Amino acid sequence: MKRKFQVLAVAMLTALSSTALAQEKKLTIVGVNIHESSMRGVGLKNGVDAVAEFEKQTGNKVAVNVETGPGILEALPRLGTLNKSAEDIIMVSQLMANPRIAAFLEPLDKYMAANAIPGFPQDWVKAPVDSGTIKSQHYLVPLRCGVWIFWGNKKYLSDQGVAETPTTPEQLYEAAKKATFTKPNGEKVYGFAVRGISDQVPSGLATIGAMFGGSIINEKGEVVVNSPAMVKAAEYMRKLFAEGIMPPNWTSVDADQMFTQGRLSMVVSNDNFTSRFESTEALGPGGTVPFHVPLQESLRKNGINYAGSQSFYWGAGILKGSQNKEQAYALLKYLAGPQPEAMMMSNGNQPCRSAPLAKLGETVAANKVGIDTLAISRPPLPGNPRLSEASDAIAVAVQNIVVNGADAKKTLDTLSTDLKGIYE
Amino acid sequence: MATNASTAAPIPRPNKRSRYSENLLAATAVTPPILLLVLFIGIPAVALLATAFTDYSPGIEPEFIGWKNFTTLFNSSVFYSILLRNIGYVIGVVSLQLLVALGIALILDNELPYRRIWMALLIAPFAISPVVGVVIWKNLLDPSYGLVNYVVSSLGLPTVPWMSTPLTSMIAVVIVAVWRGFPFIAIILFAALRGIPVEVKEAAKIDGATSFQIFWHVKLPFIMPALSIMALFETIFAVREFDTIQTMTGGGPGTSTSLLSHYLYRTAFGTFRFGMGAAVGWVMLALTMLMAALIIWRAYRDMFPKNKA
Lengths: 424, 309
Fold this sequence. Notes:
heterodimer; A: alpha/beta; D-Maltodextrin-Binding Protein, domain 2; nine-stranded mixed beta sheet; 11 strands; B: MetI-like fold; 13 helices
């Protein structure tokens, strides 16, 4: 009996210690659902698991904790200020990448000095690398890059008599008006939408503003949100909303979801959404037509007849409180490698390395449009420790103009003063 | 027989030792909750107050800035509009919840057929997870495919652009808040109504009182303590309303449906101004305590009249 107890005790201890060991070998990435689908193929018809090989090679189990859009913004300071965090890697977008990330993330240079990521940073798109570099230290490895482009529902557009995709704001208005209709079952299909939920509004304003040659903050860093072009852009959005071309619950509805559900004819969205849009039953394979951001006729020059939009990126950084920094860096390096990069590309991820990005454009129509657009685009707001404050102020102002009917010029003037207080 | 008083056993007076052990027992029983209150409410509240006097924002070294957060707050027109909206929201939602719940409790108090089934149905909104309930309503009220507008248009009435204007967004939020809150109140009020002695109601009837008079002069005074407690709870819940706003409207369009708790969240976690967020938190606490004190004073002043002797 005593012997049996001893054997049982040893077995239990072994099981417990192996569980503890297994826990030590776990790496946790904090991201949003798009990262889970691009890394692990979750939710995609023919998704592949790009992380499985790393798990096999190193014995580390990789978990992707999925946060919501606002949730990930909140997660960075929350997890980044912990001395010990159960999470190891966090995905940081252009909305979060500002100088204060240095307080939350581990500088990667010492790891890179010992074990470099081939081609980093020279082979990467410059803008995202720059915004993840604080005081000459690298904090982020950009893994997902892209730009907003226009997408149309092919069937709806042709059924409603829109033969060509629009190339000017005026054409866009006419096409969107035509493509606003009611289905036989009584469900209304709206002609056009750009994302209207708070944290997405600056990107939307930047994209619509670009159609008229405006921007929120220009390349010199000056706040120009109240320029005539931006006033025109805000009034243009209000017109689309007031005439029922944009959905009435624009500020609270997910425009991409509406598009995939067949309740929207045209949407402004990521250029790397081919897999996502074609994975949905409502649109079906080849059911979408990607096209360039329309540009006002008078602004066309150097043979470019489309506008830029907002470029976006997600970089991966190691949390300061991670207990497995070496392994976390090994995972970062692995994800930045050519093989997982290719697998993630097949899951619809658009990489941040220039060469594969260009190659992707040769085969996928939306990526071709995206690469053209990326060349003349930048993030809507430059990095700043008070970036979220600026973003919030823009969201409130634009929603007030578009939905609540506030005077565009006056509201943008006030917004300009607020933004100057933050940026200048 | 006359010696009864003298022979009766005297009530034993607790000796010093037993009094000590009684006190010790009481202290042992009271200490853990007090410690928990200090740990989970007292210390965070003091820390929050201290934060309110700094410009703390994660990743940036905090500095003591005195009353600046409070002065900025009280000089902000946005904050005033949110504060007033929150007060209006509390008054509107709590009144509606109490009225609907009282009506339903009175109906249930009659000998209704299948009363248990009605009660089970009544509790359903309370049993559903708050966020799930809000998401269901968001879909029901969707302007293009929502069931509510479908029914409205089927009746030949004009559809309502829910969540498309400040007014329809706020109405939608109020509908959901009332729907979520009234079942619990109704159940409590129903229990209070069932507790009224039948003789009292019968006596009022014999005296010729009408149904309204019975309600006003008999039932209402009896259920007033329960009604007051419910008003108090619902006021506290309404002041701190967050999940309905965040899930349904995100505070928009603009800030037209934002309430204090949402403003606090947006300030602290949306824009990382934790110092300012803490100041909003203290304003919320003051508002809650003020409203609670008013309700308690109004409800209990009649129950504990001053001794006029």
